[in-house]
Structures are given as C-alpha cells and as structure tokens.
C-alpha cells in the first residue's frame, strides 16, 4: 500500500510539473504593440507589448530577420492560464540597417505588419 501511495504521489507531481512548465512553451498570437523606442544609432528597438485577451502574459520573444523585415514570435508565461511567472512586457530587438518592417506572428500563414519605416523621413510608423 505504501508503494502505491508513493508511486501515485510521484506520478501526480510529474504531471503537475509538466503542465506548469509546458505552458511556457506555447506561442501567443494575440500580442499587441503599445509603444516602442528606437536607440539613438537605430541598431535596436524596445517594444512595449501586451496581450489582447483577458488572460495570460508574455514570457519571451524570438525574432527572425529575413530580407528587410524582422518577424517576432511571442511565448506565454510559465504556470498556466493567468500566471505571471517569468512574465515581461518590454523586449529589445536588434535591427539591421536594411530592416524596414516588423511583423508579429498571428499563428496563420501571414504575420501582421505592426511597424514600418517611412522611406522619406526614416522614422518608424506603427500600423
């Protein structure tokens, strides 16, 4: 009987740990941009973000530079539906000189354009 209780407790703990940690590896496709600042030399940008839904928080950002654009994918915080473990809302991304567009992953084939560099002024404009 004692082995059964120990085994059941260990199995329950492993399941809880997997659910707790596993939630932090799912993508957030409802991220919205609230603000941004560009470094003086234009090589980096600080993004201020939040989620559009009523539950959940952002933990991390993964960027991919392709041609003239930066594609951003966001990941949810650890701990379940509304946990703030590891949550952040400000992320710094690196910008190459050729970069003119920033996209957010929306979970579909196409990403959403959120920032674009104006060709005439050289300033970033939120879309």
Describe this entry's structure for a reader:
The chain is of the alpha+beta class and 127 residues long. Strands 1, 4, 5, 7, 8 and 9 form a six-stranded mixed sheet that branches. The chain has a three-stranded antiparallel sheet with strand order 2-3-6, with no helix packed on it. The radius of gyration is 19 Å and the shape is elongated. The model has no long low-confidence stretch (mean pLDDT 87).
List keywords for this structure.
9 strands; 127 residues; alpha+beta
How is the topology of this model organized?
Blueprint: H1 2-22, E1 27-28, E2 31-38, E3 44-51, E4 58-66, E5 69-76, E6 90-94, E7 101-104, E8 112-117, E9 124-126
Parallel strand pairs: 5-7
Antiparallel strand pairs: 1-5, 2-3, 3-6, 4-5, 7-8, 8-9
Determine the number of helices (DSSP H or I, runs of at least 4 residues). 1
Q: Roughly how many Å apart are the termini?
A: 63 Å
Poorly predicted parts? none
Order of helices and strands: HEEEEEEEEE
Question: In short, what is this structure?
Answer:
The chain is 17% helix and 42% strand.
